[in-house]
Write a structure and sequence with these properties.
Protein name: PGG domain-containing protein
InterPro entries: PGG_dom (IPR026961)
Oligomer: single chain
Number of strands: 0
Helix content: 55-70%
Keywords: Membrane, Transmembrane, Transmembrane helix
Distance between the termini: 35 Å
Pfam families: PGG
Number of domains: 2
Radius of gyration: 29 Å
């Protein structure tokens, strides 16, 4: 499957190279400007950064396509200018691969980060809500809000003048004000998503806390007259005690993290790191506590049936792993996405391209 995808990508790149070469060999710069320019307009919308890269490598001046402030080559002076900017459109459509590609072109990135367009700079564009299909590349309104904040902060880094952060658009709004207005509904949805998720997991974590706390004082086999546990010298008993302690501590941590989410102020900035961080720690702790609880249960059962049913250990291990596996299947994808978006490699990074600055 992966090999087929690579073959298709290579064929597509070869086709693009051939088309670009044919257009340039015709020597008609007006046609090259129009054809390659329209190709870039479509490519940036759908995030086909390979096509954009090939077009620029073939015909470097096409990077200024649609920019009527820059003087076109002599061959295309009479072309009708088209209001389009590659960097701005990459931000508008939230296409990080195209953004990264343009970011590597140092001169272009400095130019577009400080330019104006109808009293809107690049930060105003980043403050607007992303298209619906780009919002849904991540799961849940909270992570969508996080992705939008990441975009806003990344563009903010490129702004060369602090005054642009306070610049007003046609509606009299700064980029930050525009961001709050555009993401008002997403913020509400993110709050609700976080509350619902945290509430559900809090019930499970609190139940595990109750069980593991009680199990610590209700030892299998009971105690001797001097208070020492009956199975103290058994390795299985030590496994029970350690597992129960781990389950208690991790489930308590999980409860605290989820309560921290429920009592949060839910400010916009909290969705960037604070809330995803708490949810990640809470989920990891809950997964550990569930696993440790199952181990403690199976070890306690094995202790009580040790002299009657000697073969009980293997079936118990298999049986107790079932709920842990189900929990992993249901919630591990969310955990992976949380870790990736919060602690993983940023979506804004240098790409391995042929582009020369």
């Amino acid at each position: 499957m992966i090999n087929d995808m690579k073959v298709n990508d290579n064929k597509r790149n070869l086709l693009v190279k051939s088309i670009c070469k044919v257009i340039i060999e015709k020597g008609n710069h007006e046609k090259a400007w129009k054809i390659l320019g329209s190709a870039i307009v479509t490519a940036v919308k759908y995030g086909v950064h390979e096509l954009i890269e090939e077009c620029i490598l073939t015909y470097p001046f096409i990077i200024w396509y649609g920019d009527d402030e820059y003087r076109l080559p002599d061959q295309v002076q009479d072309c009708q200018p088209y209001k389009f900017n590659l960097f701005i459109e990459a931000i508008r459509h939230r296409q990080e691969r195209v953004f990264n590609l343009v970011y590597q072109m140092s001169h272009h990135k400095v130019f577009v980060a400080t330019r104006h367009d109808d009293k809107e700079n690049a930060l105003h564009i980043a403050a607007k809500l992303a298209p619906t299909h780009r919002l849904h590349v991540v799961t849940g309104a909270a992570l969508q809000m996080q992705r939008e904040l990441q975009w806003f902060q990344e563009v903010q880094k490129l702004i060369t003048r602090l005054s642009y952060e306070e610049e007003l658009n046609n509606d009299g709004k700064t980029p930050r004000m525009l961001f709050s207005d555009e993401h008002k509904q997403l913020l509400i949805e993110g709050q609700q998503w976080m509350k619902d998720t945290a509430s559900s997991f809090t019930v499970v974590a609190a139940l595990i806390v109750t069980m593991t706390f009680a199990a610590a004082f209700t030892l299998p086999g009971g105690n001797q007259d001097n208070g020492i546990p009956m199975f103290l010298n058994f390795s299985t008993f030590m496994l029970f005690i350690i597992s129960d302690a781990i389950a208690l501590f991790s489930s308590s941590t999980s409860v605290l993290m989820f309560l921290g989410i429920l009592t949060s102020r839910y400010a916009e900035e909290d969705f960037l790191y604070a809330l995803p961080n708490r949810l990640t720690i809470g989920l990891i702790s809950l997964f550990i506590s569930l696993t440790a609880t199952m181990i403690a249960f199976s070890s306690a059962l094995a202790l009580m049936l040790k002299y009657k049913v000697t073969w009980i250990a293997t079936p118990l291990v298999i049986a107790t792993s079932i709920p842990v596996c189900f929990f992993g299947l249901l919630h591990f994808p969310l955990l992976v996405e949380l870790v990736k978006s919060t602690y993983g490699k940023s979506i804004f990074h240098q790409q391995n391209t042929q582009m020369i600055h």
